[in-house]
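Methods — Computational structure assignment.
A single polypeptide chain was analysed. Its primary sequence is given first, followed by the predicted tertiary structure written as structure tokens.
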Amino acid sequence: MALSPRVPELGALELLLAVARLGSVGRAAAELGVSQPTASARIKGMERQIGVPLLDRSPRGSRPTEAGRLVVEWARHVVEAAQALDAGIDALRERRDARLVVVASLTVAEYLMPGWLLALHTASPGTAVTLRTANSADVAGHVLAGEADLGFVEGPSTPPGLAGAVVAADRLVVVVAPGHAWARRRAPLTGAELAATPLVLREPGSGTREVLEMALAPYGGAAKPRLELASSTALKAAAMTGAGPVCLSELAVVEELATRRLVAVPLADGLDLRRPLRAVWPAGRRPSGPARELLGLTRQSAPYPRVRVGAEAAGAGAGAAGAGPRPRKRSSES
């Protein structure tokens, strides 16, 4: 049921309670941060609205009339309820602002997100973060469904229905076990050769698979995979056991290449396997709160070291073993 037009606004009721408590329109006006003429006009307007006088005014101050005392008592319940509502809304906002749900592609979640979340914890230690992982296609679905505040995907473009920003650059590399014939080749691998070779690949829907298939499209498309696996860890294990060439993010193989457990195959210059890594959110709604803070931190992160391929890797292999990868100057493809 709609309220009667005789019901005063909440601010006027607060003013009436202050006058009853302080005994003066002037003192009530000062407490509430309004001028005395404004306060007097508001009280008079409320009296006209209700239809009865609410205050007895005298040089010594103002006090409620008999009707005014009834209105004061009713108003007290209304204002207390409004204050409880206000406190509840604040609590809801604080809970929302202290929680962050992120869904990220496997590469981003495993190799970049730990550093970003550590920086977020340092900046805002009270923020509770839930991190979920999925392939890039599923990340987009979770964000569109409102199941995450922020998503991170791999691939050449922003998924439909989402807005995004590039937060890092990545490159795919082709790696093999040290005993594989490609580990000893010096000539760069051409797009046609790579397209004709059954590879060990990520599952359809992953950003890694999408970038590779786009790069090989001019060469007739990728051959039927030898195996399809759902994580970088599984891909690396398959490559090291000799299952065949593997194409995956260079972020995932820095340690294995440095210790020569895997060898990166040199690729021809025309084979572009670079890809951006994006933060995504629903179109038309910019990230706020912890999501905006995390997005800002991703843009402050330091670049990661590039891996070495071909003869360069072979020459550095002995020195790198056991010492970890050594950063080198970022190439122009970054």
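Note: The longest strand covers residues 162-176.
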